Amino acid sequence: MRQYFSVVGGCLLLVTSACAAQQKCKCAEPAAPRAASTAAPSATNAAAMPSAPTDQTTDLPSLVRVLGQGIPKPRPKQFETPDSVIRFTFEKIASRDMGGALVAFPAAEYYERVRLKDVVKFIGVMAPSTYPLDDDQYGRFNHALVKYLGDYRQISLKVLSDDSGGAITVTEANTASVLREFDGGRLNALQVLAIKDTHPESPPKISPIDEAMGVTEKLLREVRVKLEDREVVVIAIVGRIGDNWRVLSLF
């Protein structure tokens, strides 16, 4: 909320500054004096006049609903096979198009459909601090984006280096090499070498969260990718939602 009002305040400040810069701006002119014939409001009328609104709250749920509607979704039948959505995702990792990658992930379905009861049914315990309440629209919106963009980020780091999971001691001697190792621009050379169905006999089970999103089929794929002289194996869990396959998880 504080950030939102800061943005609004900044916009008003820009308008005021632009207005003051105009030589003939009417905002800077003194108000015309009231005509003598204009009667001042009586005490009775003043009491009846509505007071200026003092409530400065913002309809945050409506704002978040608008933002939620902006989460990209695939076109009808854009990803008719598991391989197509996986390759699309790695193309977006290579091009560093994090926003475009959301088309492959069911972030919109997660935000719109998953509720606390689905999470509790899935994990078997009530952990209030790990998932937003049902009426916390901003929390659910943020949770959906963080969940899938977190996968995007973690896989990017995994492809770049074997040391992405911990802290690296940086000295004057190795600073340049460490920064190059984690230079996201290197991912432009990322290639998908193979996508394999390693366990066709035992596909992943559909969870209560999957059911809430509308997943009707779920598969596991082993993805072998190459970056320069590195080959990395990534596990992708994909699910069918409507007429498209989507990436449910990457690790």
Order of helices and strands: HHHHHHHHHEHEEE
Question: Class by helix and strand content?
Answer: alpha+beta
Overall pLDDT level: 82
Shape: globular
- Describe the strand arrangement of the main beta sheet, using strand numbers: 1-2-3-4
Give unreliable regions as ranges: 1-31, 33-54
Q: Tell me what portion of residues adopts beta-strand conformation.
A: 15-25%
Largest sheet, strands/sense/barrel: 4 strands, antiparallel
Rg from C-alpha positions?
27 Å
What is the CA–CA distance across the termini? 33 Å
DSSP strand tally: 4
The helix count comes to 10
Q: Helix share of residues?
A: 40-55%
Element layout with pairings:
Layout lengths: L1 H19 L22 H6 L11 H10 L12 H14 L2 H4 L5 H7 L2 H8 L13 H24 L14 H7 L9 E6 L11 H6 L1 E13 L2 E12 L2 E7 L1
Describe this protein's structure.
The chain has 251 residues and is α+β, with helices and mostly antiparallel strands. The chain contains ten helices and four strands; from the N terminus they run αααααααααβαβββ. The chain has helices at 2-20, 43-48, 60-69, 82-95, 98-101, 107-113, 116-123, 137-160, 175-181, 208-213; strands at residues 191-196, 215-227, 230-241, 244-250. The chain has a four-stranded antiparallel sheet with strand order 1-2-3-4. Strand 3 and strand 4 form a beta hairpin. Helix 6 packs antiparallel against helix 8. The longest helix has 24 residues, at 137-160. The model is unreliable at 1-31 and 33-54 (pLDDT under 50).
